[in-house]
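Example: Putative HTH-type transcriptional regulator YdfH.
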Amino acid sequence: MESQQTRVLVQLRDLILKGAFTPGERLAEIPLAEKLGVSRTPVRLALAALEQEGLIEPSPTNGYMMRRFTPREIRDAIAVRGHLEGMAARLVAEHGVPRQLSLDLRACLRDGDRAVGKAEMSYDDYALYGDMNDRFHQLIIDAAGNFALSRAIEMNNRLPFASPSTMLPMQNTGSERQKWMVYAHLQHHRLVEALEKGEGARAQSLAEEHVDVAQMNLDYALERPDAAAQLLPAMKIVLGGQP
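Written out as structure tokens, the predicted fold is:
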């Protein structure tokens, strides 16, 4: 059964990643406890855990405050994800791909093909691609069978904009942005091929290169801060920083 402390931690993390707090805002225990309908103790413990995750920082006046993330910090987190997922891909290729994993990965490829195969991607297509992308990456991480690696990826992906699930479907994005998506999904196809052939070094290289699209996605958001913040509120705590 989920403990109250865990529920409070999840709720506060969710509020942060939804842009509920502005950079530098003080996170006081009493108002947060009242907001969540709990005592101060689980809030205090949750805030300490969120500091360990790097989402908040100590306040000069006591307690904690919302961190300001710079674009450089997010770029670094995306790069770290690439290296960690590269390790996972190599492990999967070297261990061998079980039949069920192959079937699951290829189901993801088909979903992605449907999403990016349209003449112009709609919001629904972006949502389909985003769901597929989440499943695809998690399948490989789980199949690597390395607890420490899985935990490291999980912690890194809690930083805003660092996880593969971050997508920014915008109207009138034009053909150039859709080309990125087509290219990203082509990389998925190549990665599955490398995994199934047991090509560990190639699988690792492809997974590491794959985060280049996430870096381009971040650049795209930074160039359109107002639209990006509306679609992904967590960008509010990134856009205020310096490159």
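The longest strand covers residues 56-58.
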